[in-house]
Amino acid sequence: MVQRTLKYYYQKARKEGWALPQFNFSCAEQLQGIVQAAVRLKAPLLVGTSEGDSGFLGKAQAVALVGAHRKETKIPIYLNFDHGKSLESVKEAIEAGYDAVHFDGSSYSFKESVGITKRVVALARKRRISVVEGEFAEIPGKHSTFHKGKAPKLGKDSFTDPKEANEFVEKTGVDSLAVLIGTVHGMYAENPRLDIERLREIKKHATCFMVLHGGSGTPPRDLLRAVKTGVVKVNISTELRGAFINTLRATLKEMPNEITPYKILPKSVEAVQKVAEHHLQFLGSANKI
Ligand code: 13P
């Protein structure tokens, strides 16, 4: 069967008012739990690796693992390169066979970011990449951290400007844009509320797909309102990492003398599966293949 593209599912999600979670992973066992969740819920699946994740696992290895799961499960699984910070790293991901790429130009000036993103789009169009994601407004917070305090208070003037969003999309030709409307990377005692009005304004001005980062810990009601307003993808990393590692810690405590990975790790795989199932169901991707 010819696999549908990720763009097909973005279009379907936007039309029908649901979203795909993007689950990040850095080891085969995390991916195993994520894939099990999607198979059980008959959900199209988007997974991702950041530069850190794929620096550990290897880009070719991530592509091969996803390919093996796709072949075995026969469900649509897509691999996105998350937060590529340079043209070189995104180019490597494209050449390794990723299905989608995200160039994070937030550390460059707007003009520089437009220039590099345009080159990423040109490279991607020559290959089988169906979605190029852009970002120019930095999403704050530290990935993969459970913070004890409140999230940093974000000024609305740091949120994505709708007119700038339009200019960015027109000039670069990106398919999707990571918008800053209040989400932060990582989990806090209290994650911030989202500015849905700003999201509506961005939607009015920019024609691309809108995606959110920092999905872990985001107030659920706000997340659903964002999806109903048109967000088609929500990135989740911290919650999955927490489920995997905290379960591993507990298992090691329970079995202090055990050294066999396949006896220690299944509980962590199961914990990841549970978290992934929750998000697939909550965002509405279940039964959408
Ligand atoms: P969280 O770690 O807050 O889930 O954010 C993940 C993310 O946005 C990856 O790009």
Kindly describe this structure.
By secondary structure, the protein is of the alpha/beta class. It has an eight-stranded parallel beta barrel, surrounded by nine helices. The chain has a two-stranded parallel sheet with strand order 6-8. It contains twelve helices and ten strands. It has one domain: Alpha-Beta Barrel (TIM Barrel). It is globular and about 60 Å long. It has helices at residues 6-16, 28-41, 51-57, 59-73, 87-96, 110-125, 162-172, 196-205, 220-229, 238-254, 261-264, 266-283, and strands at 20-24, 45-50, 77-84, 100-104, 131-135, 141-146, 176-178, 185-187, 209-212, 231-236. The longest helix has 18 residues, at 266-283. It starts with 5 loop residues before the first helix and ends in a 6-residue tail after the last helix. Helix 5 (87-96) links the parallel strand 3 and strand 4 (100-104). 48% of the residues are buried. Residues 24, 82-83, 143-144, 185-186, 213-216, 235-238 line the site of 1,3-dihydroxyacetonephosphate (13P).
Secondary-structure topology with pairs:
Layout: H1 6-16, E1 20-24, H2 28-41, E2 45-50, H3 51-57, H4 59-73, E3 77-84, H5 87-96, E4 100-104, H6 110-125, E5 131-135, E6 141-146, H7 162-172, E7 176-178, E8 185-187, H8 196-205, E9 209-212, H9 220-229, E10 231-236, H10 238-254, H11 261-264, H12 266-283
Parallel strand pairs: 1-2, 1-10, 2-3, 3-4, 4-5, 5-7, 6-8, 7-9, 9-10
The structure holds 1,3-dihydroxyacetonephosphate.
